[in-house]
Amino acid sequence: MKSILSGIILIALYLLLVLAPLGVLLIEPVPAGSGFWWDLSLAMGFAGMGMLGVQFLLTARFRRASAPFGIDIIYFFHRYLAVFAFGLIVLHCLIIRVDNPSAIGTLNPLEADGYMAMGLLAMALFTLVIASSLWRKPLRIPYDGWRQAHTLFTAVGFVLAIGHIKGVGYYIDTPLKQSLWTAFTAFWVLLILYVRLVKPLRMLRAPYRVMNVVKERGDTWTLTVAADHHSGLRFEPGQFAWLTLRASPYALREHPFSISSSAVGADPLEFTIKELGDFTRTIKDARPGELVYLDGPYGAFSIDRVEASSCVFIAGGVGIAPIMSMLRTLADRGDRRPLLLIYANNHWEKVIFREELEELKTRLSLRVVHVLFKPHAGWQGESGLVTADLLSRVLPGNRRELEYFVCGPKPMNKAVEHALESLHIPLRQVRTELFDLV
Ligand SMILES: Cc1cc2nc3c(=O)[nH]c(=O)nc-3n(C[C@H](O)[C@H](O)[C@H](O)COP(=O)(O)OP(=O)(O)OC[C@H]3O[C@@H](n4cnc5c(N)ncnc54)[C@H](O)[C@@H]3O)c2cc1C
What we know:
The chain is α/β, with parallel strands linked by helices. The chain has 3 domains: 2-203, Four Helix Bundle (Hemerythrin (Met), subunit A), CATH 1.20.120; 208-298, Elongation Factor Tu (Ef-tu), domain 3 (Beta Barrel), CATH 2.40.30; 308-433, 3-Layer(aba) Sandwich (Rossmann fold). It has helices at 2-26, 36-58, 63-66, 71-99, 101-104, 114-134, 143-168, 175-205, 320-332, 354-363, 388-394, 410-422, and strands spanning 208-216, 220-227, 240-245, 255-258, 269-274, 291-298, 311-316, 338-345, 365-372, 382-383, 403-407, 430-433. Strand 11 (403-407), helix 12 (410-422) and strand 12 (430-433) form a beta-alpha-beta unit. The model has no long low-confidence stretch (mean pLDDT 89). The site of flavin-adenine dinucleotide has 22 residues, from strand 4 and strand 5.
């Protein structure tokens, strides 16, 4: 209930911030209208800018703000609202271009007036940001470089767009409106400074040190880190943190990983990481004593957020990491609720935490169903994919009363969601974690 209320308050705050620039336009004296299309185009420009400004707030990772929704939902909205805001700004330009071509003048920023050049350059940067975000993977743009360019281009584009608005001066020509608009701009600049300077500084002052790296099955490593002379972080089992290794927190080279250790006692923290790309392939080279910076915890994928008499966990491969944190925590708390883990892997030899799961069965009321996609000769357990048919066989009779936690590769998450839906399990009881925010 509390989190629903905070969610509603945050959405109201969001709308207020988005509409604030439009509100400033309406403060008297309002200039005489210059025709429907002209005024509509300006309103779209201001609304688009209001929404773009809030994008910085959405990705600033304020824990209180993201808690009711989960950071994945916030990023989802960030993505689609940015496209919508960009659409408004494109319409702003197109309408003026058609309605009053002389107002835009040349499209060459080198020949345009200063404030128009700023508008054109801002537009070019926003176009680059949107295109590279939507098609980063097909265009094979490496994540780290994309993220640095994304941050730089949006900040510069935003400042140029503000310069454009101030240069045009239309609707913001009285001292009151000027100061409100300046305050609005200052708010966003301070926000950017907080996110890019103050937050990394805090991380720098509360570092962690690598304790060890242990090889797991399935090309996976568990990295253990301990707080270096501070109290460390408190987290809910299933949450994740952004981890920076061999770089400064200012370098924007952080990667999100679920905490796989128990939330009881918390420090030291463990992350179970699969070798996948440039960064994850270097985890095994981390040396004891090396510095690590963490930003977290984040996420709403936690058993502590639901009230359930019984839970089902469905994991695929390294998707076991956040679920392992939940199981370990429940074991440490002496929880005796009936639990079912359906754990899908390609090969038996790749099943991460296979032995520990056996041990956890003795401490929890836990049933584990292994599902192998490529079973070895003589395998007597479940095989193939996690389908509705398999679920209907292994889920208990009270399946509609249970809470579900699903974490695996994207196609598996989707397939499992559909399968659960086809078994009439209400989707509000299904929580999924996707290891892919962008
Ligand atoms: C909430 C969450 C929890 C995760 N938990 C785990 C976990 O417990 N164990 C685990 O092995 N993996 C986890 N991941 C995935 C992990 O973050 C990526 O595999 C890792 O960042 C890939 O980096 P790379 O340079 O090795 O691979 P690359 O080949 O560079 O990247 C592969 C893909 O991973 C994504 N990615 C890369 N870098 C980042 C980044 N800095 N931030 C966000 N996404 C990025 C991009 O979509 C990229 O295309 C999690 C991801 C998320 C979003």
